[in-house]
Amino acid sequence: MRATTRIGLILAGCAAVVLGMSLRTTTAQATAGDGRGEIATVDVIVLIEDMMKTAEYAEPRSAMETLMRQELTEAGEQLTNLEAEIRVMDQADPSFALKVSEYQSLAQNLDNMTQAKAAEYDQSNARQAVAIYGRVTDAADTVAQRMGYRYVIASRAPDAPMEPELGFNAMAQQVLSRPMIFGAENDDITAAVRAELGMPEPSDDADSAEENAGG
Q: Residue 31's closest CA among 145, 190, 182?
């Protein structure tokens, strides 16, 4: 699975939190005659996804993955060695049953460890996303005040691509992440918020690098 897709699923799981805080009021008044309204939109999801690809967040994830993979590999090798030992044993050997019991216990421990590591990694990603969300909304508030907006809605662009192959539940989350169905194009301040955060514009090269890093 692509790394960006994994991140997208993590963020979709937090969609209710994001949308519950999506309408933010600024202290600024709308600027008359500039072709803008009082409500701006920001594609919070894409900004979180892109910031999670930066070295600041990707490198700690990579280090965590490496450590977890090493721990699971060591546990797996111990199980494999024990299996090989059992295969050459005589079942009449008094220690055979003990070895089988030990193998079953190690196999269960490895399964539990794998699930625990997956949950730990998922929680770590979620914590990153929450931290980034705070940075994005602060930047959106700054930009909105500067541009004269009173409200900012977290909404993906209506024409942002959908991924129906991820299933109905994920598709429903994608729909919910688009509360703004129609709005003026110049009321989308995502690019300005990206610049406020000091983030470069996304590129296909960055996506390819992230995909390769994620396997």
A: 145
